[in-house]
Design goal:
The protein is α+β, with helices and mostly antiparallel strands. The protein has ten helices and eleven strands.
């Protein structure tokens, strides 16, 4: 099935850590309409190929009833290394996320906007939450996927960095002692992509509905543009401590949009809307 998908979607489909997962990625898109059309084509093609093999894919951040202990890893060197290093926490990764890349070809700008956009990541997560089920049970969390992924190292909110150089120095320490091969092993909620000139948002659950995913991508792009416009006018969004943003991240993970988030400027919880 995967070979057939790869022949039809050259460079836009790939296996994931577990053999029960498949990943698709759009081309570089100049508009949201283009991104939507490309993603629709990718999903439709995978669904049609899967149907010919007697299967049906679901876009779900956690499989609602699958047993993670029965999943089989993909036979590739990168995944074998991940399995060896992470053991049980990697074997539990029956989860799927939505990653959105926004092009920013200035490294200093990528770091500056990463520091500021951290504030909004819980808001994006709350909109996407769609993974309450794990192993056939209702966990009571709107996004149990986040709980599973947070067991991995180098996840969650990134620290604040004063410059691109400071960020690279921290990466160099980890690579220098052999803990990671490169910055692709930093699995933060948002990160400067190692492979592309983009700022990659990774906090959100995968969206079952195509238009929900496109809406979240649109909001993320708009937030970065807003922060860029502030910078152009010698302004910026206030930087809040990671411990405070983490509280909203937890509320988003637990309640989605149902219970509201903290407005730190006004010092109170406000309805999500």
């Amino acid at each position: 099935m995967l070979a057939e998908c790869e022949s039809l979607l050259a460079g836009q489909v790939s296996p994931e850590f577990l053999r029960s997962q498949i990943e698709v990625g759009t081309r570089i898109c100049g508009s949201l309409a283009e991104a939507r059309a490309d993603l629709a084509r990718l999903r439709l093609t995978v669904a049609e190929v899967a149907a010919r093999h007697g299967m049906a894919p679901i876009a779900a951040a956690t499989h609602p009833f699958a047993d993670w202990e029965t999943q089989k890893p993909t036979d590739r060197a990168r995944y074998a290394t991940l399995h060896r290093d992470m053991q049980g926490v990697a074997r539990r990764l029956v989860i799927c996320g939505l990653h959105v890349h926004v092009g920013l070809d200035d490294d200093e700008l990528r770091i500056d906007l990463m520091n500021q956009v951290r504030y909004f990541l819980p808001h994006l997560l709350a909109l996407s939450t769609s993974s309450p089920f794990w192993g056939g049970e209702d966990t009571g969390l709107n996004s149990y996927r986040v709980s599973v992924f947070d067991a991995m190292p180098r996840t969650g909110l990134p620290d604040q960095f004063d410059s691109w150089g400071e960020y690279r120095r921290h990466v160099d320490i980890l690579t220098g002692v052999g803990l990671i091969d490169d910055a692709t092993k930093l699995w933060w909620d948002v990160r400067p992509s190692e492979r592309f000139p983009t700022l990659e948002m990774r906090v959100t659950d995968i969206c079952t509905r195509l238009d929900d995913g496109i809406a979240i991508a649109a909001l993320y792009r708009c937030l970065l543009r807003m922060l860029w416009r502030l910078k152009r006018n010698n302004q910026r969004w206030r930087i809040y401590a990671r411990m405070l943003i983490d509280e909203n991240r937890w509320r988003a993970q637990r309640y989605g949009t149902d219970q509201g988030l903290v407005d730190f400027g006004r010092g109170a919880i406000f309805p999500y809307a």
